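Re: the 115-residue chain
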Amino acid sequence: MSTLEKKMEETKSVSPLIETRDLTALQQKSGNLYRSINVISKRSRQLNVELKEELHQKLEEFASTTDNLEEFHENKEQIEISKFYERLPKTTLQALNEFMNDELIYKEIEEEPEA
C-alpha cells in the first residue's frame, strides 16, 4: 500500500464537512477552552507542515528540468497528486478529531514564580 493510500485510510474517519462542536466537551478535555483550542491549533500547524513537505517531495519527483516559458505541458501525475491532497480533510479537522479521541499527548509548561 502506498503512502498516499495509507494517508487516505487514516483520514477516512475525519468528516470534511463543517459541523457544530460542543464547546463544553472541548473545555472538559483540558480544563480550559482556550488551552484546548491552543493545543488543537498547534497540532494543526504540525500536520500542515508535514503535509506540505510531503506534497513538495512528491511533486519534485515529476518536476521538469527545463525552464522554458513557451513550453508548458501538463503532467498527469502531478495533477493526480495535487487532487489527492486537495481532497484530504483540513488539518484543523484532523487535529480536532485527534484531540477529541484522546490521541494527542500534550503537557502544560508550568511557569516559575518570579522571586
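The first helix runs from residue 3 to 10.
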